[in-house]
Design a protein that fits this description.
This protein is mostly helical. The chain folds into two domains: about 90 residues, Orthogonal Bundle (DNA polymerase, domain 1), CATH 1.10.150; about 180 residues, hpI Integrase, Chain A (Orthogonal Bundle). The chain is built from 13 helices and three strands. It has a three-stranded antiparallel sheet with strand order 1-2-3. A hairpin with a 4-residue loop joins strand 1 and strand 2. Helix 10 crosses helix 13. The longest helix is centred in the N-terminal third of the chain and has 20 residues. It is elongated. The N and C termini lie far apart (about 55 Å).
Length: about 300
């Protein structure tokens, strides 16, 4: 079997590919998953399809738990991380559950199959002073800088994801309550606080936006000079630009603001549940990575300060 992900469902027998295509369509229409999530499911299920076809398995009801274990082992040997294999297995479980609900299958062969553990890479933390200096260094003498500062301030203030920021509409910002209405993964809505500096930056941006848009209407809070919704790629490119201009150490991207916000809040408050709510994590275990970051800082201070730490 090849370790390359195939590009199309057409390459497989209809008896295998049609149920997958139907499942992907239901993710789009019934569950209203984002385009990014749909693409991820398609990518993972193409891997499953290639494996099943390579094993000369003709129907989905012939897939056994042993086959799914072999699938995970195959990609582990190819160097896929434990996290990536876990995503593959999650997509498999979702597909098989869908087929069970349609009475096409009697059991889920992926149930109980676990991905191999891999070393957990912690996100790089940014010091408060370093991040504040960067935000202050964004040039707001031009309109595009005013917009970019509002974007960066909101990322750091509220720890929202890139896709969530792209979706925002002007009416999602409540200046009186100092909150933002966020539509997150799975179309779940949450309300997050917005800090004073971010609100001030957004107010300045809305003045510019009004001039840019004129009488035109757009549902997007952040737009380009062409009056279109600012794309994820454009936001990434602008933040990377300011990172280079201001001499920021390392590549500056949206998720670093999210990490920084969560880390700084946890260091100050120690309230893991509150940080979980802010980030929109369904499982607190996902948020607990930031406790490791906090411990790293504690360990560093301990090694430097404790009289018997290194004796």
């Amino acid at each position: 079997m090849s370790d390359k992900t195939p590009g199309s469902l057409i390459a497989f027998p209809a008896i295998l590919s049609e149920p997958v295509e139907g499942f992907l369509q239901r993710l789009k229409v019934q569950k209203n998953y984002s385009l990014h999530t749909q693409k991820n499911y398609r990518r993972q299920l193409l891997r499953l399809l290639e494996f099943v076809a390579g094993m000369s398995i003709g129907q989905w009801d012939q897939v056994q738990t042993a086959h799914i274990r072999q699938l995970a082992a195959f990609y582990h040997r190819k160097g896929l991380s434990g996290r990536s294999i876990a995503l593959l297995l999650s997509a498999c479980r979702s597909f098989f559950n869908d087929q069970i609900q349609l009475n096409e299958l009697a059991f889920n062969p992926a149930r109980g199959v676990r991905a191999p553990k891999s070393a957990h890479k912690l996100p790089n933390s940014i010091e408060v002073d370093q991040l504040c200096a960067l935000l202050e260094a964004i040039d707001v003498s031009e309109d595009i800088g005013i917009r970019d500062k509002a974007v960066a301030e909101l990322f750091y203030s509220s720890a929202i994801r890139l896709a969530e920021l792209v979706r925002l509409a002007p009416q999602d910002i409540d200046f009186s309550e100092r909150t933002a209405r966020i539509v997150g993964k799975g179309n779940k809505t949450r309300i997050v606080p917005v800090g004073k500096q971010a609100l001030a930056a957004i107010k300045e941006w809305l003045k510019v936006r009004g001039v840019w848009m004129g009488v035109s209407e757009s549902p997007a809070l952040f737009v380009s000079q062409r009056k279109t919704r600012l794309s994820p790629r454009s936001i990434q490119a602008r933040l990377a630009f300011w990172g280079r201009i201001t001499g920021f150490s390392g590549r500056l991207h949206p998720h670093r603001f999210r990490h920084a916000c969560a880390t700084h809040l946890l260091e100050s408050s120690g309230d893991l549940r509150a940080v979980q709510e802010l980030l929109g994590h369904a499982d607190i275990a996902t948020t607990q990575v930031y406790t490791h970051l906090d411990f790293q800082k504690l360990a560093s201070v301990y090694d430097k300060a404790h009289p018997r730490a290194k004796k």
